[in-house]
Structures are given as C-alpha cells and as structure tokens.
Write a structure and sequence with these properties.
- By secondary structure, the protein is mostly beta strands.
- The chain folds into three domains: 3-61 and 196-222, Pseudouridine synthase (2-Layer Sandwich), CATH 3.30.2350; 63-194, Pseudouridine synthase (2-Layer Sandwich); 226-275, no CATH class.
- The chain has four helices and 19 strands.
- The radius of gyration is 22 Å and the shape is elongated.
Length: 277
C-alpha cells in the first residue's frame, strides 16, 4: 500500500510525532511534506511507502494559512512561545490594509533565527538557544495574497496568506509590524491547504487506528497534477526511451492497468523517471 494521508495536526504535537504515529499504524516508511511548528495546527500531508519518493514533485505547491498577529509586542521566537516584550503601538485596520500590498508578490524575507535552517552545520534554533550571534541571509519567497480578515482582540488581527514554499509566516508578522513602525509576533497559525490537500478533508491523528488508517489513504496517482501518457512501448519499463506523440513534460505512467510511476517526455521521447510500484 502506498499513498498519502491528509492529517490535521493539532496544536501541541510536532510534525515528527504525527509522522511517527502513522509509521506505527502502517508499519511502513513515512514522511511529511512541509513542517508545521508544534504551536501550529492544520494540514500536514504524510507520504506512506513509496509515495515519499514524490516529495520533489510537490515543492512548488501553494499553501494557505490563517494566522493571527499580535501588535505592540514581540518575542525572540517571533511567536507566542517566546518571552513577550511589550513595545510599540497597535495599528488600525486602515493602516494595516495600506501596508499589505508591499508584501504581495516576490519579496525578500529574512527567516526567523529560531528555525530549522542550518548555519555552519547547526540548526538556527540551536544557535539561538545557545546565545550565539549569527545572521540569516534574506531569501526570495512568493506571497500570492495577504488579506486582513478581522480584528480578533484589541491588539490582535487575523489574516489569510497564500504563499509558496519557504515562506515564514512569523517573518511576515515581524516585517508587517516594522512597516507600521511597531512590533508584532505570530500568536496563532492554521494551515488550511497544502497543494491539493485541504483542511476540510483532513483527519485528526487521534482518530486513526490500525484498522481504519487504510480507509483514509489517498491513492498516489490521484494527487499528481499530470495527465496520463497512455499506451507506450513496453521497453520504457526497462529504462529505454521510446517515441510518443506527446508534448514535453511529466506524465502518469501505467503498466498492466496499474499505476507504475512518472514518465518524462523530451522532444517526443518518453522515459520512466520515477518508479513507484
């Protein structure tokens, strides 16, 4: 059995803990696509079995978040897990809405020091906890939309963010606050979607058992955004390039009616690129 589980990770559980539960239930190798911090909740797609080989094909997927930012304070972790230090004013709705367009599109973003990014072979959060003085380089990320949804407390607002891989919502809280001449941190985060995986159809880990876990398994081929290649010369399954009438690109490849893997077509020649069966 191979495929994906669309988990709804609860607050307080690490992504690794969620994956470990699936490993225990399925007795198969598993991995997740896109870490969620323990304080965050929401969609956590988990590949089961050979589906973990497909993670590279999902790197460009869009993610949707609902986040709350608290203004007039900050923390060293840029979220509510750090020690809160008060300072700065709470902006108005009009001020926030005027500032948001500058954060849409391709932007340069400095990741939080408390992150899993490596610096000289060590994780950023380990260096930060040790008190080391270090900097992280700005990276280019894409924010497709950044909308103010509502005011949820006198000093807190809720936002919806649609963005590409590598975007840190905590950094958006810091940078939006700075643009408003104040301070801010992320006080809540829920991932609503990760590519084709959405919160509405996600399952909570505590509902899974060894008896029902397979009922929630999503077939691998159903989440791949490729067309089927159709019938091809059987030599393709032996690593041979075969001629096809298809445009360049990636395709689902079948063998004897079952899903075999992914083929790539280049200049009218198809080759098996990823075997999953």
């Amino acid at each position: 059995m191979t495929g994906f589980l669309n988990l709804f990770k609860p607050e307080g559980m690490s992504s690794a803990q969620a994956v470990n539960k699936v490993k225990w239930l399925t007795r198969m190798p598993c991995g997740h696509m896109g870490t969620l911090d323990p304080l965050a909740c929401g969609v956590l797609p988990v590949g089961v079995g050979n589906a973990t080989r497909l993670f590279d094909y999902f790197l460009s997927k869009k993610k949707t978040y609902v986040a709350r930012f608290t203004f007039g304070a900050t923390t060293e972790t840029l979220d509510r897990e750090g020690e809160i230090v008060r300072g700065g004013a709470v902006p108005t709705v009009a001020q926030i809405e005027a500032a948001l367009p500058a954060f849409v599109g391709e932007i340069a973003q400095i990741p939080p020091k408390y992150s899993a990014l490596s610096v000289g072979g060590r994780r950023g959060y380990d260096l930060a906890r040790s008190g080391a003085d270090f900097t992280l380089a700005a990276r280019s990320v894409t924010v497709d939309s950044f909308r103010l949804l509502s005011q949820t407390a006198p000093d807190e607002y809720e936002f919806e963010v649609v963005c590409g891989a590598g975007t840190y919502i905590r950094s958006l809280a810091r940078d939006l606050a700075a643009a408003l001449a104040t301070q801010g941190y992320m006080s809540y985060l829920r991932r609503e979607a990760s590519g084709v995986f959405i919160a509405k159809t996600a399952v909570a880990p505590e509902l899974l058992t060894r008896e029902n876990v397979w009922d929630y398994l999503i077939p691998t081929e159903s989440v791949l955004p490729f067309s089927e290649l159709g019938e091809v010369d059987a030599r393709i399954f032996n690593g041979v390039g075969v001629p096809v009438q298809a445009e360049d690109g990636q395709y689902k490849l079948r063998r004897d009616g079952g899903f075999y893997g992914i083929a790539r077509v280049t200049n009218g020649v198809a080759r098996a690129e990823k075997k999953l069966c």
